[in-house]
Amino acid sequence: MPETPALDIRGLTVRYGGTTAVHDLDLTIHRGETVALLGTNGAGKSSTVNAALGLFRPSSGTVQLLGRDPLTAVRSGGVGAMLQHGGLPSESRVGEVLRLVAGRYADPWPTADLVATTGIGGLLDRRTEQLSGGQRQRVLLALALAGTPPLLVLDEPTSAMDVEGRQAFWTTMRDLADRGHTVVFATHHLAEADAVADRVVVVDAGRVVADGSSAQIKSRIAGRTVRFGCTDRAGLAELPGVTAVRGTGDLVELATTDAEATLRALLAAHDRLPDLEVAGASLEQAFLTLTGGTR
Amino acid sequence: MTDLLLFQLRRVLRSWEYLFFTVVLPALFTIFFTKVFGGQVGSGTEYQDYARTYMVSMMAYGGLGAALGATIRLSFDRASGWLRQLRVLPVPGREVVVVDIVVGMLLVLPSVVVVALVGRFVNDVRLGPGTWVELVGALWLGSAAFVALGMLLGLALEQKAAGAAMGIVSTVLAALGGLWIPVEVFPAGFRVVSELTPSYWYAGLGRGVVGDGGLVLPVLVLAGFALVFACGALAVGARRPLHAVAG
């Protein structure tokens, strides 16, 4: 009998009033995978994560964590989570909060090791109000890990961190993945997804628009943008490598999968290319490529 | 559950404002007003009556303030995201609510007891040993109505409003309920308003125990208020779960 998946989402639909945040989404994550849910703000990542954790009842669809319903899985200590709107209690010290939470698990992560792993050694006597954004996130990570959960679900965990903090955080995540934890995280940074995840699920407008290895996704979305001033757009779409022609007014923006070929062809056809610029595609542009510009 | 209870108690007791407004202030009022105005009423019996009534009022003031202060804080925990965090930890939401109710009830005791001690040993209020126990016990149990009101407000209000409500609600209830100035000196119209407040009946409960009035009516009215507030809290809690994002 195959092992039950770490996370199994079927037909998940989430509606808030009149807007549908998640459309009939299916997603299966197997144990041991490190998966990034990549999407822009408002793509439906948080809604998916929150529904997966049982924070609200979805409009339709089912979620199973480790083969159980979300609440049971959370209560039994099988899932550790970092929420986007999670927080620490006021009027308390970090060590007190950690002790309270760790004491709730049958098999807690040994405190000394947990403190070292999450890098909160100097913070235990600190009042929660005195933590910086990054320190806070590390304490929240320690809480998420306190029960040695086989499955970790993180919603934009590095949003309050500086560059150094981010690097340290993702190093910790890679170590956890190496130890066999299943890690699912939502992010809007392609670089983070690329650096940590062995599978990237791209979510846009509440749907999965791409799902594959980091390299596969990158090759599909790591296109370039060629910008220049030009009033005549005739023939641009037919240039080699070009996948989309956009831009406003005199400024043309070409999305291309082969910047070099596109440039050669452009230079051959035009005497002047004022304000020429070649840049890496932003995630927004990458999504346009993935979704065929239908957004 | 004990772990969460101790954790929550420690948090509330860390707030010096809380201790000041619920224990120190009522105790100081008890001494100050009894010494200032009680001294003017003259003879022994009259002084006793004044000191006893004022002490009961201040026990009620301290008790309701403590009950409200300890429970309205629930709103802060929602705003900070702590309640949401607890939802993804093995801490059932029901336990969080039960612990907050227990914390509210427990923290009423210091306020009520300290004012009673001040009444007895500083203002020389004379009551039989049994009456002292009954008085503290009655005001302790009666505070359940304010614990329920505090839970209702804590669940319903946003952080800023809740912070303001902590001070304003207990002040208004104390003033209108005749805890600071006895209702006897209120104009007639005001006395009607006073009798619509739970605080009037809460102090009435204490007055009943020390023999300054009936007991049955205050018990019934206070139980009614407790029931209404508790139902309100349940209704709001069902509409807006503890882990809902603030705002």
Automatic annotation (TrEMBL), chain A:
Subcellular location: Cell membrane
Cellular component annotations (GO), alphabetically ordered: plasma membrane
Keyword DNA-binding: no
Record keywords: Antibiotic resistance, ATP-binding, Nucleotide-binding, Transport
Membrane topology label: Peripheral membrane protein
GO molecular function, one term: ATP binding
Pfam families registered for this protein in UniProt: ABC_tran (PF00005)
Domain named ABC transporter: residues: 7-230
Major location (coarse): membrane
GO terms of biological process kind: response to antibiotic
The keyword Repeat is assigned to this record: no
Protein name: ABC-2 type transport system ATP-binding protein
Organism the protein comes from: Klenkia soli
Species lineage: Bacteria, Bacillati, Actinomycetota, Actinomycetes, Geodermatophilales
TrEMBL record, chain B:
UniProt-annotated location(s): Membrane
UniProt protein name: ABC-2 type transport system permease protein
Family annotation (InterPro entries): ABC2_TM (IPR013525), ABC_2_transport (IPR000412), Nod_factor_ABC_transporter (IPR051784)
Top-level division of the source organism's lineage: Bacteria
Keyword flag Transmembrane helix: yes
Annotated source species: Klenkia soli
Segments traversing the membrane: 18-38, 58-76, 97-118, 138-157, 164-183, 215-236
GO BP annotations listed: response to antibiotic
Pfam families per the UniProt record, alphabetical: ABC2_membrane (PF01061)
Annotated membrane topology: Multi-pass membrane protein
Any Gene Ontology CC annotation: ATP-binding cassette (ABC) transporter complex
GO molecular function: ABC-type transporter activity
Alphabetized UniProt keyword annotations: Antibiotic resistance, Membrane, Transmembrane, Transmembrane helix
Residue ranges of every copy of the ABC-2 type transporter transmembrane domain listed in the record: 7-203
